[in-house]
Structures are given as C-alpha cells and as structure tokens.
Amino acid sequence: ARNKRPVFHPDVVAQLEQVFDERRYISADQRFALAKELNMTEEQVKSWFHNKRTAMTKKL
Questions:
Q1: pTM of the predicted model as reported, rounded to 2 decimal places
Q2: Rounded mean pLDDT of the chain?
Q3: Average pLDDT of 11-40?
Q4: Mean of the pLDDT values across residues 10-35?
Q5: Contact 17/46 with Cβ under 8 angstroms?
Q6: CA 36 to mean position of chain CA atoms
Q7: Are 12 and 40 in contact (CB under 8 A)?
Q8: b/e per residue, 16-50, with b = 16+ CB within 10 A?
Q9: 5: pLDDT confidence band, cut at 50, 70 and 90?
Q10: CA distance 28 to 6
Q11: Is the dihedral of CA 20, 26, 11, 57 positive or negative?
Q12: Which positions does the record tag as DNA-binding (predicted)?
C-alpha cells in the first residue's frame, strides 16, 4: 500500500506559497532552513515545490 499524502496545516501552506511567490526554486540551504522552520522534512519541502511548479505549469 502507498503512503498517505500528508496534509499540511493551512499556515504552513501559506508560508510555503509566500516563499514560492518570491522564488520558484530554492537552494538546498534555503530548503533546509525552511524545513526546520516549518517542522517538515527537506524531502517534503522539495516535493511541495516540485508539485507546486508542476501544478502551475498545468494551469497555463
């Protein structure tokens, strides 16, 4: 069975979207700091940005 997709708190999503609006790609250092600040894993932050970029591309 697949792992369940995490549902992030709306406040966390709002912060992720704020950073995403500033830059669509973040460095490893920025990812590490953001993950620590939001109590997420780096992989979760990386995936969120990847999925958000994909969703933005599909919207166009």
A1: 0.89
A2: 95
A3: 98
A4: 98
A5: no
A6: 12
A7: yes
A8: beebbeeeeebeeeebeebbeebebeeebbeebbe
A9: confident
A10: 21
A11: positive
A12: 3-60
